[in-house]
Design goal:
Length: about 650
């Protein structure tokens, strides 16, 4: 005989037995009669328990139906797939999600900047699923009432708890469980003499790029330091218990660091949500070497401290189901990566990338002569990935060459991906006796621990590198990097570049940098119709000015002493410089500091060549010599770092067309 369990939720009666899970929605004013009528369409069905195949990223998302506050949500839509779907599972046990849903700026990003192609389904992992759905909808309505309202038709809130959905979604949420900035349950554990049980509360650590310190695994004494707006010598060697308000988070942490505290716990005022602790403006330039987090004020902890009892605190992270699932325009499941801080920006960025990828698929359907080079080949070690291929005999009839490249990981999950960002270069050699043997043909930067990157790069001016019918391609990164799985195809299409002239390479970005470059003299070959400057330039390393990765550098090609053709990396070091390039293919929500602008590159993105037509700047007669000189500057001057100079990686050419 089946054992029946009655679970009474806020507004929901869930009756569970071995073969079914049936919902009875109690009447409440939040549901309109029409909504309630639509909801009943699913009440008669029984869901038979069955063995569920574990779905992986890249698999096709099975069809499903979910009851929402506005009726039944059906996937895929009856009219067919038109855009991506993102599924977000909320739990009140997560301080990260509490902040995500209470931050005005976060909600504003969802309402104003969610791509128009995208829909979002919100569900709850908790017993309070009805109240959660109503609350989430109210939070969105509150923000949308003064702004954009069109988005509301694309946001769907389900009152059915995840554990009663009866479809594949719970399986994916649990099997894709993760830990990191946006998932897993970060907690503070308080103990005190006389307590029978520890007090465990949710916590939200301060912004990752402000306070680099991390909590140790040991127990710390907790000391009441008031509001933290003044130093507290008593906090030395302990974690400071500090109240919210009266001064900035920066001031509190700075004062506790001066007091030699080992960390700071800011407790929210009663009734206030947990906030994203961050620095503002110039505060961010002051290094502070201790960790900090925000929690709710637990009465038993406050009372014990008030009575002078010893309270200890330790820190832990409890694994949780995943909070986010993506489904792209093709119906393929996708991980959503790390949300580095509590903001719906990260949902928007993933959705923008889905739109980019859909556009890329459209471009790849255009007619082209495709030459496969690598097909899911592992790239690792000193040799990298190597392949020798035959090229089309009529190759010089084509006027376009594109590199279709992808970087994936040993398994379908992001957790198998290489952890760090590295430069990947493609070298080609078609004639071992040619000066162009093993010249760079393409460059990409790997993502932080995400395996979804795919890019199409126009390298048409480099067709002259393919000066033989059989060429060897080598794709490699630093030999110590974890493996990547690479795929690469050459795509030829129908002006024709007939000659290359190699110019300058990069080097150490120090006071000697520009001294190594001398003017190059050249004449234009007969029958040339166009001359193009082609350069691939990226800055790496970090001196005291952040050069060359995070500083603004300029790169100048002076033609005939009169024409200064300049490439400036003006977004380097900016807070969202690379996040703004997701629409171009930058991999979103990486497991690292992918957001910041860099010196000519972004993690998880190809490095685009800089191409500039200099025909009108030249003497095209073929009689008079032209001159060209390169130099690179930092803040308008020659670089002159005091220590640890960065470096510039550069390949540059003149390309002659006829």
């Amino acid at each position: 005989m089946s054992r029946i369990i009655f679970i009474v939720l806020a507004g929901v009666l869930c009756v569970c037995c071995s073969s079914s899970c049936v919902y009875f929605y109690l009447m409440r004013r939040a549901f309109s009669p029409s909504t309630f009528a639509h909801s009943t369409t699913n009440f008669k069905s029984k869901i038979t328990l069955q063995q569920v195949t574990v779905l992986e990223p890249g698999n096709t998302a099975p069809a499903f139906k979910v009851v929402t506050l506005d009726g039944e949500f059906v996937y895929p839509p009856l009219a067919g797939l038109k855009g991506p779907l993102i599924i977000h599972a909320f739990t009140n046990k997560s301080a990260f999600l509490e902040c995500l849903w209470n931050s005005e700026s976060s909600l504003t990003d969802l309402v104003q900047n969610l791509p128009e192609s995208t829909q979002v389904l919100f569900v709850s992992l908790d017993d309070s699923s009805v109240n959660d759905a109503l609350w989430m909808r109210d939070q969105v309505l509150r923000v949308a009432s003064h702004r954009k309202t069109e988005v509301l038709s694309r946001l769907h809130f389900s009152p059915v708890p995840v554990f009663c959905l009866g479809n594949w979604i719970p399986s994916v949420l649990y099997s894709w469980g993760c830990s990191g900035h946006n998932c897993g349950l970060s907690q503070a554990v308080f103990t005190s003499t006389g307590w029978n049980m520890p007090v465990i509360v949710k916590r939200l650590d301060a912004r990752y790029d402000w306070l680099m310190g991390s909590w140790s695994q040991m127990k710390h004494q907790l000391i009441d330091a008031g509001d933290g707006c003044e130093p507290a010598p008593s906090a030395a060697g302990a974690v400071a218990w500090v109240s919210e308000g009266n001064c900035s988070f920066f001031t509190k942490v700075k004062n506790m660091a001066k007091s030699n505290a080992t960390g700071v716990l800011v407790h929210a005022r009663p009734g206030n949500p947990i906030q994203d602790m961050n620095c503002v403006g110039d505060e961010c330039s002051t290094p502070l070497g201790i960790p900090a987090a925000m929690v709710h004020c637990e009465p038993s902890v406050a009372q014990a401290l008030r009575y002078g009892h010893m309270v200890n605190v330790s820190f832990q992270s409890t694994p949780s189901p995943n909070f986010f699932i993506g489904i792209d325009q093709q119906g393929a499941l996708s991980e959503m990566g790390w949300f580095l801080y509590p903001s719906f920006k990260f949902i928007n960025w993933q959705a923008q990338w889905f739109d980019f990828y859909e556009g890329l698929q459209t471009r790849l359907r255009d007619p082209a002569w495709v030459v496969p080079v690598f097909e899911k080949v592992q790239m690792q070690g000193q040799s990298g990935a190597v392949a020798t291929v035959n090229l089309p005999s009529d190759m010089l009839d084509f006027d376009m060459l594109e590199l279709d490249a992808s970087l994936s990981c040993p398994s379908q999950r992001d957790d198998s991906c290489a952890h760090w960002d590295h430069t990947v270069q493609l070298f080609v050699c078609c004639d071992h006796f040619s000066p162009y043997c093993n010249m760079e043909m393409g460059r990409w930067i790997t993502a932080f621990r995400r395996g979804i990157g795919r890019w199409l790069t126009d390298v048409s001016p480099l067709v002259p590198l393919l000066n033989n019918g059989r060429c060897t391609f080598t794709m490699k990164t630093v030999p110590w990097a974890m493996p990547w799985v690479v795929s690469l195809s050459l795509r030829f299409n129908k002006l024709y570049p007939f000659k290359l002239m190699s110019l300058y390479s990069g080097g150490t970005f120090d006071k000697e940098y520009n001294k190594r470059y001398q003017p190059i003299k050249f004449t234009v070959p007969a029958s040339t119709k166009k001359v193009e400057l082609y350069a691939v330039i990226t800055g790496h390393g970090s001196d005291e000015n952040g050069c060359g990765e995070f500083c603004v550098t300029s790169h100048h090609f002076l033609v005939n002493g009169a024409y200064n053709n300049t490439r400036i990396f003006d977004s380097a070091g900016s807070a969202l410089g690379c996040a703004m390039r997701v629409g171009e293919g930058a991999v979103p929500n990486e497991h690292g500091t992918w957001l910041y602008g860099r010196g000519g590159w972004c993690d998880g993105l190809q490095v685009n060549p800089w191409r500039f037509d200099i025909t009108t700047q030249l003497d095209m007669s073929g009689i008079e010599a032209n001159t060209l000189l390169y130099f690179g500057l930092y803040s308008g001057q020659d670089p002159n770092p005091s220590h640890d100079p960065g470096y510039i990686v550069m390949f540059s050419y003149l390309v002659f067309y006829k």
